[in-house]
Specification:
Alpha-Beta Plaits, 4-stranded antiparallel beta sheet
Length: about 400
């Protein structure tokens, strides 16, 4: 800059005007230089700000891309869980207390494996635990609830049921409640001074349509020695599972859905509810045919039919939660249902077998709507029921 100043000064030295201009030149050049430096600083700040903004932008883009990838991975995981739940059928099977002998346990396990069913786990649960944890009461759901868990004032019989009650007993339902004449089966035993078997003996003398009426599915009321008893038959049934000497022996089983339908699992592998009507080769028929050799104390019948198995993939899930401590959102089939949009809270509520709106219209039992459906169809139907009840 000094040499530029000197040259300009020489050029301007020949006239007074030039001399004045020369005198002003250093200040002008200094101002120009200062402006250039200021602009340079501004440019640097602008570049820095732009770089910072770009970094933030890149980070935002990277975060968006990462979120998109995570969401995509989550959706793919859900799809895999749904696919796995549909591809594998899992059931809960147990030998009933009256039939728990080593020979029966061996026969049941070998029969399952012969049908191509894998036994993943087996074990025993004793009567005192079944009693204390109310496992059998949860298992029998609404039937047990009305006999053990709910007080009469908590029951809500339909208008038709209340009309039938008044017609059969000459007393309104509300008046019977006010007079303290209605008992669940558990409290009826205390009131009548008998055990479950004793109440069952009294209950068995009742006549349907006279002193015994049906309020609904699994919901009965009978007049026993001047009081009205709800599901009086249940306590004897319960006692078979909760007696101190009682036990069940269970199996957690699975098989490829494509290899065996749920209906055939129940109809051909397990056998009909009445073992006398069960097909040859089924577990219940095999136990009936060989009951003496298997060490049973009495011939099996419709109630004591040797072995239980889940009625649907959803009931199997509910039974694993109840009997084995599984959870709706970690069990493999439960995860599939949750991934498909049926949340764990809904699954827990459904385990009580509520009345639900059905996809095709009308309403009905949740368990009935899913009974005998294969794992894939059960899951899709569950999704449709969830949507119909939103």
């Amino acid at each position: 800059m000094a040499h530029r100043f000197a040259r300009s000064a020489r050029l301007l030295a020949f006239s007074p005007g030039r001399a004045a201009a020369a005198a002003a030149l250093p200040a002008a050049l200094c101002a120009q230089h200062a402006k250039a430096e200021a602009n340079e600083d501004i440019n640097k700040e602008t570049v820095a700000a732009a770089a910072a903004a770009a970094a933030v932008g890149y980070a935002a883009v990277a975060a968006t891309q990462a979120n998109a990838k995570a969401k995509d991975a989550q959706e793919r995981l859900k799809a895999l869980e749904v696919r796995a739940a549909k591809a594998t059928s899992s059931a809960f099977v147990f030998v009933k207390p009256h039939a728990v002998t080593d020979s029966v346990k061996t026969k049941v396990k070998s029969g399952l494996e012969k049908a191509g069913i894998s036994v993943l786990e087996e074990g025993s649960i004793a009567g005192p635990k079944i009693d204390a944890d109310m496992l059998i009461d949860t298992h029998y759901g609404a039937i047990a609830a009305k006999a053990v868990k709910l007080k009469p004032s908590e029951l809500k019989p339909s208008a038709k049921a209340q009309k039938d009650f008044e017609k059969a007993f000459g007393l309104t339902w509300s008046d019977a409640l006010k007079q303290g004449l209605v008992y669940n089966a558990s409290d009826a035993c205390k009131q009548l001074g008998c055990d479950g078997a004793g109440l069952d003996a009294k209950w068995s003398t009742l006549t349907r349509g006279q002193n015994l009426i049906k309020f609904g599915g699994g919901f009965y009321c009978g007049k026993v020695e001047g009081i009205y008893v709800m599901n009086g038959f249940y306590m004897a049934m319960r006692g078979k599972f909760t007696d101190p000497s009682a036990t069940i022996h269970y199996y957690l089983v699975e098989w490829p859905t494509s290899s065996l339908s749920w209906a055939d699992f129940r109809g051909k592998v397990l056998g009909a509810t009445d073992p006398a009507e069960a097909s040859q080769g089924s577990l219940r028929r095999a136990i009936l045919d060989d009951w003496r050799a298997l060490g049973l104390p009495a011939c099996p019948d419709t109630g004591d039919n040797g072995v239980h198995a889940s009625a649907s993939p959803f009931e199997a899930l509910s039974e694993r939660v109840n009997w084995c401590g599984a959870s709706f959102d970690t069990d493999a089939y439960g995860r599939g249902l949750v991934a498909a949009g049926v949340d764990a809270k809904t699954l827990k509520a459904w385990a009580e077998d509520p009345q639900v709106k059905l996809p095709g219209g009308g309403a009905g039992s949740l368990f009935d709507a899913l009974e005998d459906l294969d794992a894939d169809k059960c899951l899709e139907t569950a999704k449709a029921i969830k949507k119909a009840n939103e």
